[in-house]
Amino acid sequence: MAVNGYVRVGEIKGWQHAEADMAMSPPDASLPAGLSGVGAAQPRWPKARVAAVEALWGEGFSLPGGEPETLRLVKPLQLSSSVTLLLLGGGLGGPARAISAGLGAWVASFEADPELCALAASRALPADGGKPRVTVAAWNRAQPHFKPRSGKHALLLEAMRGSKPAPLLESLAGALSPDSQIVLTELVSDDAPSDRDREFAAWCRLENRQPDMPRTAEVTDALERLRFDVRVTEDMSDRHITQTLGGWRDAVHAMSAGPRPAAHMAAAFVTEAELWLLRIRLMRRLGVRLMRWHAIRSG
To answer: Which of 69, 62, 27 minimizes the C-alpha distance to 285?
Structure first.
């Protein structure tokens, strides 16, 4: 892909056609070249990758939809300055800042990836030197623990990543008030993909997730056992794919209109494009779905 030290933007520009081809190719097709060369010893979030991701989804965001989608997800919670929201999967810090700035809520953001957690924490202090309305802390997916009665409601943004729903939601329920609500998004598979599937195993490694994907009913059952009334269970897969394609269209247009990106930045975009192609391919080939739950504690 590199030519004289540069990666051609045109190769990124054609990624939507490549996505269609990948969706039709057989299960044993070769992995995208940029993904197979990612070493475990390398940082997962170098500066070039952070810049590429933020160019796609917005400053501080690492998932499609960015700020508009985050605010849409929390709308049912009716947040205000009197409410503290527990946010799991805070990423680069954009979701917490958008919720705090847009709705006035206090946000306790938790991120399991240590690199993302450090980046989000470094950005959490308000520019005016006032009291921060956002806090950032690490959490352990294998042993989730949250301070009892520390929040009113909770938002989870693809926070499980292979951890078991029951212990996570049990700990989270203990951290919320008796009249709490939970909005949760998570990638699920009701057909339990095998980690022997080469593409699935590579995707788990690159997205820093365990291969055990929850089933839709497993999450719903865990919420109901904790006396939450599940009001909404929505398949957001098509919306997610549309937002992904839209983010890439906008980013490619901006790159085409601007100066030629440096080699390291272009390479970061190519690798990120391949990662998202792989996610979409698995959603279509293996039935991986992005689901949303909205649940209200019933007493």
So the answer is: 27
